[in-house]
Known about the structure:
heterodimer; A: mainly alpha; Methane Monooxygenase Hydroxylase, Chain G, domain 1; 2 domains; 0% strand; elongated; disordered C terminus; B: mainly alpha; two-stranded antiparallel sheet; magnesium (chain B); Translin_fam (chain B)
Amino acid sequence: MSVSDMFIALQGVLTADQDIREEIRKVVQVLEQTAREILTLLQGVHQGAGFQDIPKKCQKAREHFSTVRTQMESLKTKFPADQYYRFHEHWRFVLQRLVFLAAFVVYLESEALVTREAVAEILGIEADRERGFHLDIEDYLSGILTLASELARLAVNSVTAGDYSRPLRISTFINELDSGFRLLNLKNDSLRKRYDGLKYDVKKIEEVVYDLSIRGLNKEVTAEAGGEK
Amino acid sequence: TGSGGFRKRKHDNFPHGQRREEKENVNPSSALMMSFKSFQLELDTRHDKYERLVKLSRDITIESKRAIFLLHRFTSAPNGEEILNESEVKLDAVRRKIKQVAQELFGEDMYQFHRAISPGLQEYVEAVSFQYFIKTRSLISVEEINKQLIFTAEDREETTNMTSSSHDNQPQTWSLKVTPVDYLLGVADLTGELMRLCISSVGNGDIDTPFELSHFLRQIYDGFTFIGNTGPYEVSKKLYTLKQSLAKVENACYTLKVRGSEIPKHMLADVFSSKTELIDQEESLS
């Protein structure tokens, strides 16, 4: 094979690669659009009246997630299944965003942390690499960290809306999450940077709880919190 | 307010580690904590594998570099055959390391750990293509390289001193594929070696090799220009250095052509030794 033949063949490979990336980018754009719609919908809970129809908003969000599943289905067909990490960076961001949104919905519904398996199911993907298009663990954890900041915001706004018990429940939840993250040995990468922000969310929520307890705005929990300190 | 002040202070000396350790009202066996324990395991396993691969990649780089240095002695030595054999032994050692990489990556998505091993593989491509050029005066193809990276389990002792313990049901063969991009980057580095080879062969009074080399380098340069910016950024970045190498070889050929007939052969070395210094200076700057 002559040198120029070799380079022609290589150029062909590189062009094919670019075509795949282009296809992936198109689907990811659509996914980002859906993610924005879900986010807009869920942002509503921060408004005073929003606290009343949380279940309704969650219901609507879940409907949107069926669109996400269809779009994910289409994304899977754009590249060879065994080359997930080759194109990973293209959908990394939107996947983390979707994890956050799914985790937020699940939290609002049940006040529990969504499991990796459950998120994968909501998004229509696998939790396990061996079984196909999967949810990378670091992407899952990143999405969960975004949830923490959102909950810090929710704690503040629920006080404004007159719901004084929610911040205490959020506080318990975030504390457990924080303990969970402290079990991990993170490398000095983007996930670690995101994790470093968690302490500020914890702090914010504790301040809200503090403000509530010194004013006796939540009687039954004040006693408990006081005993604890 | 006393307890509030206490809280505040605790936030202030926040640095990780001993933070709020005493206030652990979190149940360590809750579902959430259990799943984070499994995440810890998963992440640690992944990071450990990555570190092992980085180490292997470094070893591959070092060994490949040594093979290249050895091959540079080829032109000056009267016993070229011996040097080729010796370089083959060195490259075999490198391939044994690559076999370990292939074993680590068995059942994994290669691209997940690609960043760890890519530098080593590029250096290997450079070494093996350099040897191939010296032997055959042509460019080794990526298929040819990959053909040599299919390993079988014939050597029992090699597999027993494997560092990883996660290979209970080992398959009989492992293989590693150099990606087209790693191949291209390795070949781009090769041209730098060829430029050195050109200069040193002139120093040895060999006036045919430079012309052969300039022809070969021009082919590679044409190939890279054909690819242009279809490839990733790193490839187009190498194009600049490649152009410089080519210019040096072309200038050497020019000097040989113009002055070769005037200067007695035994003095050619002097003409170029000053040139070599110049090139080395430029190299250290870049």
